[in-house]
Amino acid sequence: MKLIPKKWIPLLTTAAVFVFLFSAASMRFEGFASMYVVADLFSENAFLGITAIGMTLVILSGGIDLSVGSVIGFTSILVATLITDHQMSPVFVWSIALALGTVFGALMGALIHVYRLPAFLVTLGGLFLARGMAFYVKPEAVQIDHPVYDRLGDIAIPIGGGAELGIAPLIFLVLFMIALVVAHYTRFGRNVYAIGGDEESAVLMCLPVGRTKVCVYTINGFLSALAGITMTLYMDSGNPINATALELDAIAVVVIGGTLLTGGVGYIAGTMLGLLIYATIYQITFFASLRSSIATIAIGVLLLGFIVLQKMIHRD
Amino acid sequence: MTDHSVPSTTAEAIQPSEASNRISVIRLMGSRLVWPLVSLAVVLVFNAIFIPSFFAVEVRDGAFYGSLIDVLNRGSIGIILAMGMTLVIATGGVDLSVGSVMAISGAVAALILTETQLGMWAVLPCALLVAVLAGAMNGVLVAYLKIQPIIATLILMVSGRGIAKFITGEKIITIGDDSYNYFFDFIGKGHLFGLPFTVTIFLSLFVVTGLFVRMTSLGLFIESVGANETASRASGIADKWIKIAVYIFAAFCAVIAGLIDSSNINAADTMNAGVFTELDAIFAVVVGGTALTGGRFSLTGSLIGAVLLQTLMTTLYTYGVPSDVAPVPKAIVIVAVCLLQSQVFRTHVRRLFGKGAKR
């Protein structure tokens, strides 16, 4: 036990689970170990990955955000409606959507910090509000047909083996790199860890607790809006019911990635591994032509396993 | 405006800071029900003025029909879930899995009715088993592994819907003519004493639960565990068993709600059954004056909270607000209730009014 630092155990377990799942699936199914599948892992879950990065920061700071799925749905329908029905330029629409998401996140953060309201309840209100607003914008799916979307849809970076990464996974990977640096090499990142570890101590250390907490929710709001935009890029449409209950998947990915739900312990890289496990499980059910409900149950069991594991490790 | 009256009330009720107000605070604490009741009355008066048909009740085939009856009928699921949620929240916990447990119970019932000839005699014990298993899992995770309730019940919330879909084979199982069961049909659509049978279900659940927690010391134990777990254990209360029991009770309520829901639509729709109902139940409990931090609880308050929520929703639908957009006012009410319960917010408001007075 002494050889491996205790805090790395969840991360290493996650990595081991991923390697095991992927190699087992590769042996079992012909054609699983290909770059096509790897590209799929990223493409199909790019928006989940983007919002999971934000969720990691929120959970690291000791909070929780249940509103992300609804914000993604709201953004996707808002962007689609403004571009298709109101002929606005995509770049302008994206800035509106990102601004709205950011302000929304900041407002929730302010309510949570200034009025000491439970994050769970405030973001629950956010969940209802954003989902209702999404249906207010437009109650049905809207197709996007715009030259900018066509051009962005043509982007494809070859990653070898004939597989290519589209625009959505590229956005996710770039954000992942930025998040790695921000979380582990900046003052802000250290503050987030400190607050999640022990908020009172953080106050006593004169860290800007309020600013950091509000910032974390603001960033998460921004990332949710960005995930919604990425979703429109991937699907070429917007739908008010998009990403329903995605917040649960995002939390599951973060926890499977080894981040402690009480805050203060975890890694952005772990979230990447959690996302890969999540995506691999869905790929396996697809390859084995199993029902997707099996995948949901498997993720629930993994979630249980990791939460219990965390409890064992941090018992003292 | 209804929204505001709710919170201000709760807000005042929980304000312990000023000694001079102590007596009035105690009086308010004793009658926490006044505020949810007042807000319910405000909504009803509003409806009486602007939607006269709201209070119209007609008798057909010996049963009552009308908007008011409709509120009670549709609200029954929310009320039943709120009963279970009240006790869970009183122990300082929360149960997010009730919606998924609803879906499982509906799926199990539909499967038994369509695939076997066993009828209700098999449905009820199986539903009970679902409740015990689901509740015990939540309870053990919270009580023995000391996992935060939000997270512990999140596991079942995520996987429970998967389990329900697995049971039904990911399709909607319709309980058609060949699998028609009189008793099952009666649960969601029958009438007793001229009222929908669902009213009898929630009223008896409310009365039995109320009597059980108040006539025995169980209610006191639950409040004690919620107020101070360590002290409760030190004074000999089996805190772990109390917690497991309340989670099983919440799952039991969810199972009943699930049976009502699937009986209502004659099918098990695992995609939509009970989605977001956990949030409605939490909302009803908070509006009813039970604090999320645990401790003192009021079943009557939660009952009124749930009725208030359903009345609000029915009012909005009457005004032609699409059911998909209705979460917006719900969200505003939630945040307003939270704000008015917040100590900091009340201090801010008081300071604001104080300044106004000086000017």
Automatic annotation (TrEMBL), chain A:
This protein's UniProt keywords: Cell membrane, Membrane, Sugar transport, Transmembrane, Transmembrane helix, Transport
Cross-referenced Pfam families: BPD_transp_2 (PF02653)
Subcellular location: Cell membrane
One annotated Gene Ontology cellular component of this protein: plasma membrane
InterPro entries in UniProt: ABC_transp_permease
Ranges that cross the membrane: 66-85, 91-112, 157-183, 214-235, 250-281, 293-313
Membrane topology (UniProt): Multi-pass membrane protein
Molecular functions (GO terms): transmembrane transporter activity
PANTHER family from the UniProt entry: ABC TRANSPORTER PERMEASE PROTEIN YPHD-RELATED-RELATED, INNER MEMBRANE ABC TRANSPORTER PERMEASE PROTEIN YJFF
Identification of the protein by name: Simple sugar transport system permease protein
Organism the protein comes from: Aporhodopirellula rubra
TrEMBL record, chain B:
Keywords attached to this entry: Cell membrane, Membrane, Sugar transport, Transmembrane, Transmembrane helix, Transport
Gene Ontology molecular function, alphabetical: transmembrane transporter activity
Signal peptide bounds: none
InterPro entries referenced in this protein's UniProt entry, alphabetically: ABC_transp_permease
UniProt-annotated location(s): Cell membrane
A Pfam family of this chain: BPD_transp_2
Transmembrane residue ranges: 33-59, 71-90, 121-145, 192-213, 241-260, 272-292, 299-319, 331-349
Keyword Transit peptide annotated: no
Membrane-topology descriptor: Multi-pass membrane protein
GO CC annotations on file: plasma membrane
The keyword Cytoplasm belongs to this UniProt entry's keyword annotation: no
Main subcellular localisation: membrane
PANTHER family attached to this UniProt entry: ABC TRANSPORTER PERMEASE PROTEIN YPHD-RELATED-RELATED, GALACTOFURANOSE TRANSPORTER PERMEASE PROTEIN YTFT
Name of protein: Simple sugar transport system permease protein
Organism per entry: Aporhodopirellula rubra
Organism classification: Bacteria, Pseudomonadati, Planctomycetota, Planctomycetia, Pirellulales
